[in-house]
Amino acid sequence: MDIEALGNLVQLHGKAIYGFCYKLAGNKADTDDLYQETFLKAIEVRHKLDASQNPKGFLISIAVGLRKNNRRKWARRQRIAPIAELNEAVDKHSWPYSNETPEDAVLSQELRGMIQAAADRLDDRLRIPLYMHYTAEMSIDEVASALRIPSGTVKSRLSRAREAVKKMLEVESL
Amino acid sequence: MNESEKWDRLFKEALASTAEPDEELNERMLNRIKERSRRMPVFRKRISIAVLVAVCTLVMSITAVAATQFFNPKQVAEHLGKDILAKAFESKDAIEINQTVASGDYSYTLHGIVSGAGLEEMNSSAQTVNPARTYAVLSITRQDGKPMPATSDAEYGKVPFFVSPLIKGQKPWQVNIMTMHGGYSETVIDGIMYRLIECDGLEMFADRGVYLAVSSGESFYNSEAFAYNESTGEVKPNADYKGTSILFDLPLDKAKADHAKAEAYLKKMRNEPSPKTGADPETASNDAEADMVKKMDELKNKIPDGEIIPESVKEVTYDDLGRAIYEYDGWKSALSADMLFTEGQTGYSDAVQFSEANGNYMALQFARDEKGVITGRVINLK
Fold first, then answer.
1. Is B19 in contact with A111 (Cβ distance < 8 A)?
2. Which of B66, B194, B197, B312 could be disulfide-bonded to B378 (CB atoms 3.0-4.6 Å)?
3. Are B344 and B338 in contact (CB under 8 A)?
4. DSSP H helices in B65-121
């Protein structure tokens, strides 16, 4: 794969990769680093990238791998912030789900923040497939291929992730 | 829209990314990649001699260039600058194998083997004595998909590999790549390590059974990795060994076996008198080894007039195997202290390593003080 081909990949998938990296990293500086490291790493293993049928999924899996290495220094910081955000959002916002259907609910800034914060508290096993599917817009099969797990397992983890987030939202609203 | 679909839409909206990479970031990133691709490779030839080791090993390290899949033996030889050998790998005499075995953290593929005389441009003393040589190409990858460290990487060499032919019926610690005037060249391309090994011709042993042994953790034959059955002559990997221990069968052409030649070769190796000639054991000396030692001595004589690189003078560290580890500017050495110094010896070691790049020779020498502290230093030879 040459520089031109890599440039095309950046054009095609850069936004999805960056958005995913942002979910993992949480701030611009670290996201920029993770994003760059992902593509730099991709060049090193480009024989696998070329062979892969799904370059976006492959790039995401590189980002996940790189992120895992940096995970430890993040764990402390991230554990505190989302809970504070979630509590604040709950205090300011009356929970709509008791009276309204999700279809009718306006996805307010606070609610968006609550769902994001709750998602961020999930264990990686559930969190990463969730972000791959909803943030990087990968299909179930693409997620399965990138994580090298069966599609059924991806579906199960997504379902559990959604249930866990819902539970957290319900608990916080009490 | 059912409940599940509604929640799905909610999650999609809530978790959709609003962050985007800016143009400047993308440009900076692509420039960094272009810069990495442009860097010139560094060639370094390493020559190593230790008093207690019978044969020297020649190692060449070259940094990675572009490749999108496994290189075949011809391509590996070309990459290492061995054009005649590259052609030989394409000839009808070459044996294509492409067999892969996974063991421990790594996956090993034996790509191919070829034998013959005059297959290298460089006329080494080993080839003068035994013109027929055998060459084989093995690649090593990590099972977790991570790349093997490039030769310029600090991690390179931290996991040593022993790759050697072994002959059924011959004690592996006596008959292996080291004692068969062998050596290897190694390169890492796109995260795959390729090792091109060479040694005296193996075809004469074709009717006995020849293996290619691969083990990790030591650069030399390790009796913990393999078990030798004295009665059957078979070599088997030790299942208990924590690391790689595998054997490939080498499918040599039995028609090229030569029992008499093989026996004469083995007797010469063991310095036993041949029953046919009744030669004096003292004259059955290893000429190739003597030539190599002479070359090393010439370089060693230049050390007193050499210039020590001040930043290179540093104390060695020790790994889990108790080996003395020295690293400086890409030069890595892992040697047992027993190989460097005899008991109680202080001062400079007789064991020296040499490195050559673009005609400039350098030496790595070790010293031990009265407290037993070992330091290494790199010396620029003039």
1. no
2. B312
3. no
4. 73-79, 83-90
Alpha-carbon gap, residue B219 to B335, rounded angstroms = 10
Nearest C-alpha in B relative to A21? B19
Q: Do A3 and B34 touch (CB under 8 A)?
A: yes
Reported residue count of chain B is: 382
Select the residue from B1, B9, B17 to test the A interface by mutation, using most A Cβ atoms within 10 A: B17
- Which chain B residues are closer than 8 Å to A103 by Cβ? 1, 6
Q: Of the candidates A102, A116, A135, which has its C-beta nearest B6's C-beta? A: A102
* B16 vs A contacts (CB less than 8 Å): 19, 134-135
Q: Map tokens 């099969």 to a residue.
A: A141
pLDDT reading at A16 higher than 80: yes
Number of C-beta neighbours around residue B298 at 10 A: 9
Taking residue B326's Cβ as centre, other Cβ atoms within 10 Å add up to 23
Residues B133/B117, Cβ–Cβ less than 8 Å = yes
> Where is pLDDT greater, at B58 or B109?
B109
Q: Which of B147, B90, B331 is nearest to A62 (CA)?
A: B147
Least confident segment among A134-143, B99-108, B159-168, B346-355: B346-355
Highest mean pLDDT among A17-21, B37-41, B143-147, B173-177: A17-21
The architecture in CATH of the region A3-173 reads Orthogonal Bundle (1.10)
Q: Which residues contact B352 (CB under 8 A, 6 or more apart)?
A: B49, B296, B299, B300, B303, B363, B364, B365
Q: What is the mean pLDDT of residues B136-163?
A: 85
Overall average pLDDT of the B107-111 stretch: 93
What are B311's two structure tokens? 């930043």
Confidence class for position B354, pLDDT limits 50, 70, 90: confident
The tens digit of pLDDT for each residue in A28-58 reads 888 998 999 898 888 877 766 655 668 888 8
Q: Are A162 and B11 in contact (CB < 8 Å)?
A: yes
C-alpha triplet B356, B362, B368: angle, nearest 5°: 135
> To the nearest whole number, what is the mean pLDDT of chain B?
77
